[in-house]
Design a protein that fits this description.
Length: 279
């Protein structure tokens, strides 16, 4: 249905989509411009992030109405010691962005990545992360939890963190965008011991993009741990050159979102109402 091509045509035209998504927090209504040419999957990553953020904003507004304001502020980087999962489209997007940065910044990132790899090798975690990214089976929560805990115990700063600020803030992964808490900020200093209260996430865009990539490439959905994301994207860069007709690609992404939302409603015992899109 979505036949890939290995040539990427620079989009000169687009179609405007009027989208309505019914989420657990309410209805998201927005418009996005989707390229009509053949494009790589990275072309729709910003569009999907935008949908996710607008849905998450509804949850944040609902939380605020109940008297629970988010405590996350600029300069708070406690969560930047967690193991962040990326979908393959996000890993390719991050690689492209990293290569566009000034040389000195690329060198600093490379040095921090090398330092993180050294620590992970010393604690026998590096190979586990590589195996996770290359696994032919979808990761199960019971397999991921010990890895997440072991990684968090090391308190390795995100390689993209500079002076406790995210140096790739506008290109940060969906998982980073989705973690907002209402509990006191000091409790985030040790989330293994202190309970935190996250704001619910209506649509996990990283998961959606992972499922989409699996469908497009006939491969299992996979998670790419952030410390190996640039290496993984470099090793699989030929796959990043594949392209699909833009509006068909976005349709496929929306269908994945709607399936994700339907599953969420079913798990909560609610009946979903129809989602819509018009061109």
């Amino acid at each position: 249905m979505y036949e890939p091509r290995n040539d990427v045509v620079t989009p000169h035209s687009s179609e405007r989509y009027e989208i309505a998504l019914n989420t657990s927090a309410g209805r998201v209504t927005t418009a996005v411009d989707v390229p009509t040419a053949f494009v790589p999957v990275t072309a729709i990553v910003p569009l999907m992030r935008r949908l996710g953020e607008e849905a998450h904003a509804l949850e944040e507004a609902r939380s605020l109405e109940s008297g629970q304001a988010r405590s996350c502020q600029k300069g708070c980087a406690a969560c930047c010691r967690m193991l962040v999962p990326l979908s393959p489209p996000e890993a390719f997007t991050l690689r492209e962005f990293a290569q566009s940065l000034p040389c000195d910044q690329q060198e600093r990132i490379a040095a921090r990545l090398a330092q993180a790899k050294s620590v992970l090798l010393a604690h026998e975690l590096w190979n586990q992360l590589v195996e996770l990214a290359e696994s032919s089976q979808s990761p199960e929560d019971d397999m991921l939890e010990p890895i997440n805990q072991a990684y968090y115990a090391l308190r390795i700063p995100c390689p993209f963190l500079e002076n406790d600020l995210c140096s790739i803030y506008h290109e940060r992964p969906a998982a980073c965008r989705e973690l907002l808490v209402t509990s006191p900020a000091q409790q985030c200093q040790d989330m293994a011991k202190n309970p935190v209260a996250p704001i619910p996430v209506p649509v996990r865009i990283g998961s959606v993009l992972g499922l989409l990539w699996g469908e497009l490439t006939s491969t299992p959905p996979r998670l790419i741990p952030l410390p190996i994301a640039l290496d993984w994207a470099e090793q699989h860069k030929k796959m990043s050159h594949r392209s699909w007709q833009g509006t068909q690609l976005f349709d496929a992404a929306l269908n994945t979102v709607w399936r994700f939302l339907s599953q969420t409603f079913q798990q909560s015992g609610n009946t979903p109402s129809a989602n819509e899109r018009t061109v």
